[in-house]
Amino acid sequence: MSDQLIPISPASTEPVPDVPLSGDVFGALINLSGRRRFTSQRVVLYAVLASMGHEGAVATARDTLAQFRDAHTSLIDGKGNIPGIFCGQLRDAYFGTLQGDKVIRHFIRLAETTLDGIGANAAGTPRLLDELVRSATPLLSVLNGLTLVYEEQSKRHAQAQRRQLQDLMGDVKTIARQARLVAFNAQVVAARAGQAGSEFAAVASTMTEVTSQIDELVREALASSLAH
Predict the structure, then answer these.
(1) Which residues are within 8 A (CB) of 223 and not within 5 positions of it... i.e. 6 or more apart?
(2) Number of neighbours of residue 101 by Cβ within 10 angstroms
C-alpha cells in the first residue's frame, strides 16, 4: 500500500475498500481501534511490573504487544472483514496530520527493545523503560484521535445509508402514486363496461390494495430510517 497522501476535500477520489462497508464492519473497526488504547496501556503496565521482577510479566507484555501490533496491521492493511485504510481522512490521520502510523510503530519498536532489555537485564533498560512510560500519554492521544476518525466515518456512512433509503422510498412512493392513478382510471373504465368489465374491475381493485400496502411500507421504512 502506497504511503502517498490523498488530499481531503469533497472533490477528492476516495480509495475503494475491498470489503463492503456496513454497520457491522464499522463496529469491528471502532472496536479494534479502541482495543489498541487498552493494549498499549497494558503493555506499559506489564513492562513496569517486569522491571520490578514480577514473574510472567515479560511474557504477558509480549503477548499484549503482539495483539497491539496485529490490530494496527489489520487496520492499516486490512484483514478478513477489516477493510484497512479506506478513505482520505484515515490516510491523513495515519500518514499525515496525526502521523498515527509513525507514532504507533515507534511505540512498538520501543516496547520490543525495552522488553528485550528487561529480559536480558541490560544496563540501559531503566532509560528505555522511562521513555516507554513517557511515550504512553502522547500515544494515547493519537489513538483517541484515530478512533474518533472511525466513529466519524461510521456516522457519515449511516447518514448516507439513510439518505439512499429515503431517496429509494421516494421513488417507490412516486411509482405507487402513478399505480393508484392507473388503478382508479381502470376502475372507471371497468364500471362503464358493465358486466364485461367485472374481471378487469377486480384486478384494478387488487392493484389499489397493493398500492395502499406499499404506502404503508414506505411510511414505516422512512420512520425507521429517521429513528436511527
Answers:
(1) none
(2) 20
CA distances for 35 relative to 56, 71, 95, 119, 163, angstroms? 22, 8, 20, 26, 31
Task: Give domain limits for the chain.
Answer: 23-160, 165-227
Angle at 115 between CA 138 and CA 139, to 5 degrees: 10
Q: What is the pLDDT of residue 156?
A: 85
pLDDT band at 158 (very low <50, low <70, confident <90, very high): confident
Q: Quick one: which of 209, 222, 131, 128 has its CA closest to 172? A: 222
- Please spell the DSSP secondary structure of the chain, one letter per residue: --------STTSPPPPPSSPP-HHHHHHHHHHHHHHHHHHHHHHHHHHHHHTT-TTHHHHHHHHHHHHHHHHHHHHH-BTTB----SHHHHHHHHSSS-HHHHHHHHHHHHHHHHHHHHHT-TTHHHHHHHHHHHHHHHHHHHHHHHHHHHHHHHHHHHHHHHHHHHHHHHHHHHHHHHHHHHHHHHHHHHHHGGGGHHHHHHHHHHHHHHHHHHHHHHHHHHHHHH-
End-to-end CA distance of the chain: 35
Phi (first) and psi of residue 19, to 5 degrees? -95, 125
CA dihedral 215, 218, 223, 224 (to 10 degrees): 140
Across the strands, what pairs with 79? 82
**23-160 placed in CATH 2.60.40:** no
Q: Mean pLDDT over all residues of the chain?
A: 81
